[in-house]
Amino acid sequence: MDLTVGVGDGRLMAGSPPNNDSTRRADHRQTADLTNGTIRRTPRRWGWLLTALVPAIFIGYFFVYPVARILTLGLSELSFGSSGLEARLIRVGWFTVWQATASTVLTLLFAAPMTWAVSRFEFRGRRLATALVTVPFVLPTVVVGTAFVALGWRDSIWAILAAHVFFNTAIIVRTVGTLWARLDPDILGAARVLGAGPWETFRRVTLPLLKPAIAAATSIVFLFTFTSFGVVLIIGGFEYATLEVEIYRQAVSFFDLPLAAALALVQLVGVTAALYGYSRYQDRHTSSWALSSDSSRVKPRGGARAGVVLAVGGTLSLLAIPIGVLVARSLGTDSYRALFQDDAVVGVPIESAANSFRFAAVAMVIAVVIGVMSAAVIAGRSGRLSRWFDLTLMLPLGTSAVTIGFGFIVALGWPVDLRASFVLVPIAHALIAVPFVVRITVPTLKAIPPDLHEAAAVLGTSRGRVWWRIDFPIVAKAALVGSAFAFVISLGEFGATSFVARPATITMPVMIFRLLSRPGQQSLGMAMALAVALAAITAAVVMWIDRLQVGEVGSF
Amino acid sequence: MRKLAGLAGLLLLLASCGDAETTPNSIRLIAHDSFASGVTEETFAAFTQATGTEVEVIAAGDAGSMVNQAILTKDNPLADVIFGIDDTFLSRALENEILTPFESQYLDTVSDGLILDPTHRATPIDFGDVCINYQKAWFEETALDVPQELDDLRSELYASFLTVEHPATSSPGLAFMLATIEEFGEENWLEFWADLRAAGVRVAPDWDTAYYADFMPYGGSSSMVVSYASSPPAEVIFASEPIDQAPTGVIDVGCYRQVEFAGVLAGTPYPTAAGQLIDFMLSVEFQETIPLTWFVFPANTTTPLPEEFVIHTVLPESPAQMDPERIARNRDRWISQWVSVMEG
Amino acid sequence: MLELRNVAVELGGKPILNGVSLSLGRGEIVAILGPSGSGKSTLLRAIAGLVPLEGGEILWDGVDIATVDVHQRGFGLMFQGYALFPHLDVAGNVGFGLAKEDREASVPASLSRVGLGGFEERRIEELSGGEKQRVALARTLAPDPKLVMLDEPLGALDRSLRDRLVSETRQLLEEREVTAIVVTHDRDEAAAMSDRLAIMREGSIVQIGILEEILAAPADDWVRDFVT
Prior knowledge:
The complex is a heterotrimer. Chain A is built from 22 helices and 1 strand. By secondary structure, chain A is mostly helical. At the A-B interface, helix 6, helix 11, helix 17, strand 1 and helix 21 of A face strand 1, helix 2, strand 2, helix 4 and helix 9 of B. Strand 1 of chain A pairs antiparallel with strand 2 of chain B.
């Protein structure tokens, strides 16, 4: 059945504005009739399934299948009764959970003032500030790790928490900020006029409306810190071990695959449980009608101006402390010039940027295509199937890099031998980036007022065209923020590829790793200079992508 | 692509009826990240020129991860040649039968101490001596003597200025731990570590952190760090301004000789080409590039060493070495014991 | 009572209001009539304190309220799109401006006054346009504001509904003897709901009076064209 509303309706409505009340209600009826009472927003069932197919195949083949293969391989040989295993498991599991929870809460609190400032206010340097916050996110753990250690922030739980806050602040600022900047100012104004002070308005209106984004951002931060590896090893010293660290030790150092698989399963179950709780929560809190088409930022005045200066300045200066160590170490040895010169051993260090960019571009495209399709699927239909689909997409964030890396090589030999193939690098990056795109896009998509679709449908526009003309421009904005994250995730490599067998390619993080693995003041200087270059490139890319958001996409 | 190439190879094989093996267009070398990140276009250019075969290098994480991946893919190998198996992982590789014997024509240039597998499934390519490095300036200032034996380190005077790496996450850390076992024997080595701990030794997770965060020349508070005998020459070569004296030196106590091996992966369709690659890696042409690229010593004793490696370092007189099989049998237990002493 | 003296507002560097002066007596209802973009909504926001003044004064009972915060002015403003809180049900919306202890008693009364008795637990998304309008009106009136401002209160509704709501709304305002400003672009609606009309054009009020006066003696050609 064709989903367009007949021409007759268009004629019927000629002369009266399409958004008047009777047309809207009339159309409600028509839409309902045409779709047999199913949901209003996406193509019908087959369309939904078709859209779901591509991301489902992607996640199924590149995540579910490899992980299932490696886990069954390991678990098939598992024999219980190793001495002290249970006690250790409980200790490590407990530490993993509570440090992730504490890290997430602290990150949320730390990021809140900055998020407020960049979402509510338009000020000179806002975009730069937002871009700068993203910088820590991309820095290789080893680089930040040495900076933290050099500052004496080490060997304690506080150092671990501080490092987690440092790395993850950007996730909160950008994910929550995207929604917050677009909250309808009239709704907030209405609360004010009704007698609520600024704080009360925040508590009673802003906060509840931001809940989906806050839940999304915190779930990502939780997963990141839940699977923390380098930070715990380098900064925490050897007293602390997360499940991720323990999985590495068992799988790599001891080659005890059964035990590693058991731990990986525990990790997976924990992550799934956390995500399940989150997804139920997310379903309940979806805001419609609360968004305005464009950002509703205003110029800060009076007290707000001081608040913005304090929030932005304070956050950036705290984040700048470890980065300051990098910069200090990168200066003085002509390191920056050396980046552009042909080193007898490593070649021209800065040329590694070209490889990084190639991978990042491919990873970004994959992540955005898969992510937006997934978001359309998730936003278009609520229910168990959709929820589990959503949850599965998030899982790679909470799965150990060892599990994914080993899974790839045992699973991807058929039908085409993709093991150790070039494509695995951007695919591994995309697995990590897709959840970002999805989490940023879904709340926006769910918040598109149905009136828009109805209005368009009345004018005789087909469903596909409705999606293209209404959803797409709105989604594009959110997807751009997501794609910035995807690009940056790929630039930073993270742990995703550390255990993936892949063709030797010198990306920027690999070059930094290489420089840092040889002694000498110049080696250190060059490594730090390259890290600073990576940070600068990240900031520039993020700013450039942020700028694209303005103007190009029409408002609704 | 590989599949296709394999299929094409098979067809050719059938067509030529009996011709043992065609020369492949490319073969794969799986290696750990440290080696892979040092590979440039020139690394194997001479090999390709001589044989017409390209070398595709696969990076597979650290040495442990690489060996494990090779074991997991034993039935359908990821590559034709593996490089970077060290003596601590050698037994794991041999026991799991991932390698097939190959006797290199250059084997007689390698000192016997490096040939740890008499069946030649693993060919030594390089070695590195894990030794304690010290900052010369600090010892001059404090007028302290450089420790003469491992026992000296038990004193707070030294131990609180020493950083070692964790044996579970760092290969020099593991090597140093093995050296102490060799030195003190299985009965007494843990006591040594208990003393070190009581005297305030620092443990870093990996070499980067130990060297670049804890070592005094880089602003840390340790005047001694477990590193390599090749580190002082690197300090000279990669100094920020030209210097003629290394700021650090090597202490010839508790040194451990790590050997890195290459091997032909069992199941490769191109055993001949794989062997040729191992021969190339042991030839002077390739061995010459080893010191300045990966900061380890070439296994081929006929290889001339770079000047800096001659001037600025000492090769330890009798570094510890341990039978790979003994390491394999005990390593998990030793690490657990070490951990319980150091963390308990 | 409310008095505006030369109120000027700029948004994004663009002048929106250029010296608007207007005064309302207690219990008076004034309609502001003008084409879209003439600054009507901005004027209401300025009075509410939601946008800062570039110049001029707003006085309540002769006292300048420039330093009084939005939430302490005790005014009510019903937004053009209603700006209902999507995360609250109908009762939550209507009771938002009330003290906790008053909600239980006042909310049902407020709702039945607008003809929505029993709607307390309805979700905002389930409401029709007319129902939303009434919820918004009930919400605005519930805290007993000393000044009520309605921004295009009936703008998005269809004709028959509008006709009914015009008289209902007026009745509600009159019952409470509340001072009110109603913004609209529809002449008849303006006339039906108010005592006096203020015609606005490009950020200024060009004429004030009852409809008959304006029709009889329009200030200029533009006003004549606009009201007829």
